[in-house]
Structure formats: structure tokens, C-alpha cells
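Notes to self after the Tuesday call (sharing in case useful).
The group wants a holo model before anyone commits to mutagenesis around the pocket. I volunteered. Ligand is glyoxylic acid. Logging inputs and output together so the record is complete.
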Amino acid sequence: MGKVLVTRRLFDEAVDRLNEHVSVDLNPTDRILTPDELREKLREVDGVMSLVTDRIDSALLDACPKLRIVANVAVGLDNIDLGAATRKGILVTNTPEVLTETTADLTWCLMLAAARRIVEADSFVRDGRFEAWGPRMFLGLDVFGKTLGILGLGRIGRAVARRAAGFGMRILYYDPMDVSGVLAGDLGAEKAPLEKIYAEADFITLHVPLLAETHHLLNADAFAAMKPNCVVVNTSRGPVVDERALIDALRSGTIAGAGLDVFEREPKIDPKLLSMPNVVLAPHIGSASHETRLRMCMMAAENILVALGGERPPNLVNVDAWDRRQQRT
Ligand code: GLV
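Result:
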């Protein structure tokens, strides 16, 4: 059925599955391929299992005449030029659903850790500074009963909302799409304009894809409109937040804290963030549980095998590319 590039070492199970039907060019290391290496390897293959660390742009796709499918091991697709792939009839797939609950869990980890100052408290204990219980030691913010603002009520946003019900939270959400049908009233989430969410939410969490429309969705104006006790959590994509404005807001006390799994210039982290005690940081691990990462890799492998077998892959994102291919055959 052809040859497939796997850009980075991942689960053997997924590589074995591919090997049953295709020849695999596996980068056996955990090192990101350089743009030159990626181009050299990609021009030889019919399919690629790519990761968020692989930038697949229009120029690269131009250099890969054989390429028929890009299976991204992620739900987000901002590392791929979707428009260019579609114009070329290259199928692009992602890994939705399987990572929803795991990413919602991590969102809650960051929210709770930021609210209750867990990382600071952990360091305090490890540093041997816990000499006596103190009535005002590490006072944080309550989470239960507070108002949660969810920006983007897609699959992950809804999974976060379901967890909020257990904390007796009032939920406000913003989503430009009409998601009222999928809510079925069960989540008790109220649709609200951004201004109302900024004015009323104690916690704001981001679950939008990175698009031109969502770039810097949270900017200086947004932070200025938030409550001073507000904690912002980002497990979506770094550039959805204007990181400089966030740092200013955290420094000036415009907002209270943040939990960040993603960064604007990832993997570069602004050193100012590193010195802030009211920020909890993670290295883009939203979907990083054993079970979920394996499921994501297996899903990407299946998408590749189906596509190279001539069928429409189950998690196809650019349907127009499929139509284009059908017209050609
Ligand atoms: C990870 O960031 C993903 O988009 O799946």
C-alpha cells in the first residue's frame, strides 16, 4: 500500500499496526526532525504520521508529490496548512474524541492547582520549610460554588463543564457556533457574551482551536475586564492568549493567577512567567496519559491505513480534499 513516515518515536503498537500493511520510515529517536530532514523524508512517502512539533506548510507540501495523507496525532491542526493540503488533494486527519476526557482532567488539574497554590505549597514542603501548621498559610481561592467561564464549548469544553457540575459551579460559556443542541440542557451552562463572562467569571478556561479569529482572543482589554480574583486556564493553544498582556495582568494584580499548558512561543517560555508564584506551568501535556496517547497513535495509524487503502479515513478533516481525489480517479 506504500510507504509511511512516522516523524518521531511513539508507541510500538502503532508502528507494528502500520508495518502489517505498509513499509514504515520511523524516526527512532525522540528528536524533532529538522525542516530539511522532514522535507527529504516526506518527498519519498505516501503518508505521514505527524505530531504537533512538525510544521507542515504549503512549501513542504509542494515538495511531496507522492503524499496522500497527513495523519496528525492531535486534535489541533494548526501545525498543518490545511488550505494548501486541501488544494493538493492531500487528506488530513486528526484524533478527536479519544483525548477529550484526558484534556479536561488536565484543565481541572491546572485550575485546582492554581486556585489552591499546590505547586508553591509542594516546594515549601520539599524545601523543609513546613515547621508548623499556620492559620493563614497558603490561603487560596475556593473553586466550589464559583462561576466558571468556558470559551469554546466543543467536546473538551463540555467535558470540563461536566466536571464543574460536581463542584456546584455556575457555568457561563461563549461559543460562536450554535451548540445549544449538544448541550441538551444537562450541563446547565448559560450562553453569554464575552463581556459578561469577563465581568462575572472567577475562572476562565479556553477550549477554542487556534484560528485567525481566536488569535489573541484574550488580550489586554479582555484581562482588564476580568475580576481581580480571576484565574485563567489555557490548555488549548498558546497564541490564543496574548502572553505579554497576560504577564502584565498577572503582575499588576488585574487577575489573580493562571494555569498554562501551552505557550505563545512554545517551547520557549517567557522567563517572567517562571518567576511568578501565582502561575502553574505544564509542558503541553493535555492529552498525556498512557492510555490516551496510545489511542491517539492507533487512531492515526488506522486513518493512514484506510486512506492508503483507497477509502475515506474516519477522522478526515478536509472533506474537500477527498472530493478532489475522487474527481481525479
Ligand atoms: C494537542 O495539543 C492536541 O491538539 O491534541
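Two things stood out.
The mean pLDDT is 96.
The radius of gyration is 22 Å.
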